[in-house]
Design brief:
Number of domains: 1
Low-confidence stretches: 1-25
Largest sheet: 2 strands, antiparallel
Strand content: under 5%
CATH superfamily: Amino acid/polyamine transporter I
Distance between the termini: 35 Å
Radius of gyration: 22 Å
Number of strands: 2
Mean pLDDT: 81
CATH architecture: Up-down Bundle
CATH class: Mainly Alpha
Number of helices: 20
Length: about 475
């Protein structure tokens, strides 16, 4: 048999009395080690939002973008600590979909699972298309061919073993980390030694000399928050790995606790260095600040380096999408909220049907994008931002309700309690609400909210039909234990 041979029985295996979503009953293999989990956690917070999207944010906010990343980074840490508390209570691959089902309602678990699945399918479509576009920098090859090759390779890797997925993410993340650290070191050299074309004008005072720290006022800074939060999407992916981590009780808290220094170094540190070497007014939307900084320093090779890094970031995102979509679909199916075919695992403990279904949709999306690259596709792509933040909202509400029940003695306390909760969780929820308001005000970001009501209606109708056909779909994890 091949590695993709399906073990029909694994879908139902588990210790007596266990809920299908618990770690012991999921049937996955714990093949992700500490090294891989750490790099998945690091890489999840570094993507094209930083390498490409920061140019538009700098143009809007100037140096005050640094403050926006600091505040948003603090909120992300609150979200991740809330997720960590839930993971140590019950480390499951379904993660926040499972928690929404248990602590809010089965309907919200259904919505969260399918919304997060859609988020990664849409993200996979856009990123594999972007990766194909980046390839044209070096070779004049058809975009569809590159997209097809990338999708097939990543699909195959995700059906060999979870360890191979972890290795790919490790090296994808290593490239991104190395690129940012290299940029920081080069900028530090320019500031201290004064080499390169920017040596004579590079100074820390560039952070406030050109129109002040808030050159476009507080409003300009607030209007960048949706861009900043978009850059952090996928940081929660580490929660989906819980069911396949070798030692989740030890590894996951360590990975989550690295969030502050990751944001401090890779976002805040990199921006401070770049904006000190090159005045903020030099950067324009649509141009990577990394590429522009290399150009201003007279290092022409920078464009090729950044193109390789964003290619890596796009492939990393596609790889993560392949991984997470299959797990989320299987979690929904195990809870009676998705087709039972998605429960099937390969001999290696991999969700074959769910991953294949998602990969097929990604290929269809690439073809649609190639044939009709119009406004309709843009609306669908923009939906990724709001759907990603929905997962964060569910994490926070679930943690607030879990903490209330644990403090009342109704559930065991987590070994990794979120500091300052539930107040920090409420603060994070209010912050996300403010970001959504900013998105509604901003004409460029407003389209992200257009598809949400339609998607909500589709899910509501689907859930009602599901309830009529499958009564177990409305049960909570506590009901099935």
């Amino acid at each position: 048999m091949t590695s993709a041979h399906v073990d029909e029985g694994q879908a139902d295996k588990g210790r007596p009395g266990e809920h299908a979503g618990d770690a012991g009953a999921e049937g996955y293999q714990r093949g992700l080690g500490a090294r891989q989990i750490q790099m998945i956690a690091i890489g999840g917070a570094i993507g094209t939002g930083l390498f490409l999207g920061a140019g538009k944010a700098i143009d809007r906010a100037g140096p005050s973008l640094i403050l926006a990343y600091v505040i948003a980074g603090l909120v992300i840490f609150f979200i991740m600590r809330a997720l960590g508390e839930l993971l140590m209570y019950r480390p499951v691959s379904g993660s926040f979909s499972e928690y929404a089902r248990e602590f809010i309602s089965p309907f919200f678990g259904f919505v969260t699972g399918w919304t997060y699945w859609l988020f990664w399918v849409v993200t996979g479509i856009t990123e594999v298309t972007a990766a194909a576009t980046y390839m044209t920098y070096w070779w004049d090859i058809p975009q569809w061919l590159s997209a097809l090759v990338f999708t097939v390779i990543l699909y195959g890797a995700n059906l060999i073993s979870v360890k191979l997925f972890g290795e790919l993410e490790f090296w994808f993340s290593m490239v991104k980390v190395t690129a940012i650290l290299g940029m920081i070191l080069i900028c530090a050299g320019v500031l201290t030694v004064g080499f390169s074309d920017a040596g004579d004008t590079a100074t820390v005072s560039n952070l406030w000399n050109d129109g002040g720290f808030f050159p476009n006022g507080i409003t300009g800074t607030l209007m960048t928050l949706q861009i900043v939060m978009f850059a952090f999407l996928a940081v929660e992916l580490v929660g989906v790995t819980a069911g396949e981590s070798k030692d989740p009780k030890t590894v996951l808290p360590k990975a989550i606790n690295t969030v502050p220094w990751r944001i401090a170094v890779f976002y805040v540190g990199a921006l401070i260095m770049i904006l000190s070497v090159v005045p903020w007014s030099t950067f324009k939307p649509g141009v990577s600040p990394f590429v522009k900084a290399f150009e201003e320093m007279g290092l022409g090779i920078g464009a090729a380096i950044v193109n390789f890094v964003v290619l890596t970031a796009a492939l990393s995102s596609c790889n993560s999408g392949m991984y997470s979509t299959g797990r989320m679909l299987r979690d929904l199916a195990l809870n009676g909220q998705g087709p039972r075919a998605f429960t099937k695992l390969t001999k290696n403990g991999l969700p074959l049907v769910g991953t294949t279904f998602s990969a097929a949709l990604m290929l269809v999306g690439v073809w649609i994008n190639y044939q009709w690259p119009g406004d309709a596709f843009t609306y669908v792509v923009s939906f990724a931002t709001i759907s990603g933040m929905w997962a964060w909202i569910m994490i926070l509400i679930s943690q607030i309700r879990y903490r209330r029940m644990a403090d009342a003695g109704m559930l065991p306390q987590s070994s990794f309690r979120a500091p300052g909760a539930p107040y920090t969780s409420w603060f994070a929820l209010l912050f996300i609400g403010m970001v959504i308001v900013m998105m509604a005000i901003d004409a460029d970001a407003r389209i992200s909210l257009y598809c949400a009501p339609l998607w909500a209606l589709v899910l509501f109708v689907s859930y009602r039909v599901l309830q009529a056909r499958t009564p177990d779909a409305g049960k909570t994890p506590a009901d099935t234990r």
